[in-house]
């Protein structure tokens, strides 16, 4: 056996081998050591190899999925090695013969299909990056749903695309460059190297045509050689990991590079689109806007949020669909109620195609199609926007399959096919008979006993059972002559005579005994046939079912966005293909929701007009104190653009948005110590990317450029950056800063406007009004903010003194400020004396001895008089 393990393990050196032994998956040698540590299970030993103990650990087969999930999350790959024959067959070859085993599946982060291993509301992408000379492409697939896409991708565009997809695993050629590995690992994805042959474009074409059963891929689009190479690598990898059982992949979709808003990784992180900067989903924009009901609708929402469209017709079509449900709230409510009963057909269909499903997956298809028909009926066919009409059309025409499944499947089937019990009664007569014999064998025997007693005229006749004879007929010895004589002897066959009774059998009883003994196995055998029949029927209609599932996701998303718009009082944006950007009373969706949930006050809405027009300025320079809301204002306008172009209503009273081609954000401070980058270096790298890449249709938000270095260095960099945005990039931008000197540029740059966050001082304290106004701030109020943060009063007061002296010196003579450090005495912390105990007053002494619960009303009144008298004395 150990020789067999080592032989199989040699084929999968980079994976843990789950070696099936009865009801357990066992691991040996280094696999066992690593798995025991990762899973926190006991490490034991089994036998010896080359004189050394063999480490061993194991997990139960019935609980294997939970252990697989833990291993995958910790970066392992797992080869599932099953028994390929019945142990009884192995024994026929000899008592020491080893059961045939082989790896039936290689489990990797990008190839998961089980519900327990996946997040129902999130895609699980497997990507492949291919490059041929100066061209490159990225292909990606969600194995659990079959979605298959490819996009030409220059190297500079790889990071933004990976940031958008957030894949779990990326396939690359062997020995990838360091920059490629680093770029992939920055996203948290696992890097898997494949042989160069997997990326051969000619072989890839053959793989793809064979997979989809076509002579040419022209029907799906025109694919470049590098795109074919990337897609072919994915198909080849699926062949390797799934051992030839390919999932039902949908025809590949070629995505153009200019059809969606480009958002790089830093901007996604800064804006917290799907996760917060700390990596949590709660608190990100997605968590606030997600009102979808189905898993497929939630996955589509995340896809749209990560990939806002730049196609005007697409955006307006999606907004029309949302408006339809906003205007038809009863239809929306009925639809959402039906969706609550709609399973995830996409993932059930994939598991069925991979022979990894159970009866509940078949039920999911049946119930999903039933919901699809109900949705088709409730939406109606009149005055529908194109997106809703197209989605509705795909929901009809599944009546035959629904009837086929209803006839054969029980209402609530069990989890596993091997347990049986999922086939409806009345469909197969032989199954019903086997079940009756299995479950009601004793009742059938009693019926036969009654028939035989009447036939023989012997009321004392009984049918009994023992381990030697099986079922037999027994009568008292006094009735034996009658039953041994004709004509009864033709029916009853003598088997045994005892002191007091005679035992018989019949041909009918012998056949019935065989049927009863085999009934359980026969019932399971018939149900396996039914299961195969149902699976084959569903998989044969996979394309139509997949289209219905896609339509359900689309309708769920549009109805959810309508629900969001109505509940949050959002408005439909006016989207155009010019360079407008005018927001009236805009709000930050996440902060606004948090304030309302906490009942801690209402969000102060603000206008923003970056339109490239005669009466507006496309570049705003924003000044004001920290904590006043500058970063919130910057982010909210960027998020409004994202929401509008994904096809959602937006948090504003009014919004006019010219399509944004690129969105760039440089907000917040962070370092990257692992790559040797300081906070300032990260800031400069991100700023450089913006200035080098932003085009005229981009939207840029920048916060505190240059703060990570010396004052004059930082001011110089911020100054030059602001000028470059104005004269070079010529894009719409919000630029927040504490360098008040930059406000002077508004007189020199035609498209620059100064704006500030209003504050009010009251008795030495600062009150934030969170209101954006035209003009420049007179100062930064840093000392007041420090006081609010809780700095010791002595530190705050010393800071005021130093600030006043520095400002006075700078006003009178710029050079004089340098000498102030010599003139000002050093700050000295005065040691505080320990607090002296305070002597108690007479009243406190009296009260200290009182137990309120022991006082009667009269005593309490007397105590009040005593205290009053004490205070007067």
UniProtKB/TrEMBL annotation:
| Pfam families named among the record's database cross-references | MutS_I (PF01624), MutS_II (PF05188), MutS_III (PF05192), MutS_IV (PF05190), MutS_V (PF00488)
Entry annotated with the keyword ATP-binding: yes
The DNA mismatch repair proteins mutS family domain extends over 698-714
CDD domains assigned to the protein according to its UniProt record, in alphabetical order: ABC_MutS1
Q: Where does ATP bind?
A: 624-631
Q: What is known about what this protein does?
A: This protein is involved in the repair of mismatches in DNA. It is possible that it carries out the mismatch recognition step. This protein has a weak ATPase activity.
The identity of this protein, by name, is DNA mismatch repair protein MutS
